[in-house]
Amino acid sequence: MTRSVALGVLMCVTLTCLGVALADDPPLPPTPDQWIAPVADDVDVPYFSWVPEQMARWVVWPSDEYIAERQPQRDRSQPPPPGRQFKVPPGPESPSSARSYARTWIDIVLKPEWIPPDLTDRLILLQEDDPSRSSVICRYEINGTGIQIVQRKWALCVVVRPAPELVKGVHPVLLDQALMRALFRNGDFMARCPATWRQGLSPGIAVGGHSPEADGPRWWEWSVCHTDGKSVALYFGKSSVDIQLLSMPGDPWF
C-alpha cells in the first residue's frame, strides 16, 4: 500500500470516529472583535476534517473568560512506552513543548517580517479535557495587518486582516492569492494551487479547497481557504514530504 493510500485510509477511519464524538459540541459564539465572518459549523467542505473537527470554529477568537478557564493546570506528558514504534503517535506533551512546537510552525509558515520578536510570549495555551482538542493561539498586528493563528497538534489556521495599503487595488476575488504571496513562505506556489470554490454559503462568504499532490502532503499545499472579501483564513496541515511521522486528527497534544 502506498504512503498516500495508507494515509487516506487512516484519515477516513479517524474522521468517522471523530464525527460521532464531536457532533454535539456546543457552538463557540463570535466575540465583538471577530476578524473574519465565520462559516456555518456544519458546512460540508470535503477537505481535511472540516466538519468532524469543527474547523469552521477555528477563526472565532475566544473570550477572556474562555481563555482564563483553560490555562494549563498540569503537565500530562508521559515517557514513551518501552519499544514504542516510531510511527505510533506519541502521547501528550508538556505545555512548554507544545509552545515550542507551535512557535516552530509559525516560523515555518510565515515570512520573518510578519513575525514579531516577542511572539513566544504572545502564544496562549488552551488546555482542554481531551488533549487532542488542546490548542495554542495568538493574534497581533504588524504595520496595520492583523494576524491570528490557531493551532492544534495536526493543523493550523491563519487569519489575515490586511491593512488597506497592503491590498490596495486588489479585487476581492484575488484577495487570497495576494495575501499568500505577501505573507507566506512559498506564497507564490500557494497562489498557483488550483482550488475548488463554493459560493453562496452565506452572504459574501466563499470557501475553497485544494487537494494535495500525489507525492505526499506538504503544508504549502493548503487545504482550505475561507474569505469574506475583507479577510482570509487559510488552513494548513502540519506535514511535509520530509516528515516521517504525520500528525493526524485525534493525536493528543498537551
Number of strands: 8
State the shape.
Answer: globular
Helicity level: 10-25%
Radius of gyration over alpha carbons? 18 Å
What composes the largest sheet?
A: 8 strands, antiparallel
- Numbering strands along the chain, what is their spatial order in the largest sheet? 1-2-3-4-8-7-6-5
The low-confidence runs, each spanning 5 or more residues with pLDDT under 50, are 1-24
Number of helices: 6
Q: From N to C, what is the helix and strand string? A: HHHHEEEEHHEEEE
Distance between the termini: 32 Å
Write down the overall mean pLDDT.
Answer: 80
Strand content: 15-25%
Kindly describe this structure.
The chain is an alpha+beta fold and 254 residues long. The chain contains 6 helices and 8 strands, in the order H-H-H-H-E-E-E-E-H-H-E-E-E-E. It has helices at 3-22, 64-69, 95-109, 119-122, 175-183, 187-192; strands at residues 124-126, 135-142, 145-151, 155-161, 196-202, 205-209, 224-227, 232-237. An 8-stranded antiparallel beta sheet has the order 1-2-3-4-8-7-6-5. A hairpin with a 4-residue loop joins strand 7 and strand 8. It is globular and about 55 Å long. The two termini are 32 Å apart. The model is unreliable at 1-24 (pLDDT under 50).
